[in-house]
Amino acid sequence: MINDLKNLTLDEKITLLTGKDAWNIHDIPKLDKFNMADGPCGLRKVEFWADGTNLHHRSIAYASPSVLANSWDKELVKSAASAMADDCIGESVDMLLAPGINIKRDPRCGRNFEYFSEDPLLAGTLAKEYIDGLQEKGVGSSLKHYCANNSEFNRQSCSSEMDKRTLMEIYTRNFGYACKAKPTTVMCAYNKVNGVWCSENKEINDILYNRLGFDGAIISDWEAVHNKVNTVKAGLALQMPYRNGMFEEVKSAYEKGELTEAEIDACAGKTVDLINKIQEMKSLRKVTTTTLERYDICEKGALEGAVLLKNNGVLPMKKGSHVGVAGTWRPDLYCGGGSAHVWCLNECKPIDLALKEVDPTSTVKSAMNKIVSYNGETSMIYPWGHPDETANYVGENPDYMVLSVATGRHVETEGKDRKDIKVEEPLEAYIRYVGDHYKGKVIVLLYAGSAVDVSSWIDRVDALILVGFAGERENVAMAKLLFGDASPCGKLAETFPVKLEDISCLNRYNDYMTEDYYTDGIYVGYRHYDKNNIKPMYEFGFGLSYANFTYSDLSVKDNGKSITVSYKIKNTSDIDAKEISQIYMSAPAKVIDRPVKDLIGYSKDLIKAGEEVTVTLDICKCRMTYFDVKTDDFAFENGEYNIMIGASSRDIKLEQKINL
Question: Model's pTM, two decimal places?
Answer without folding.
Answer: 0.96
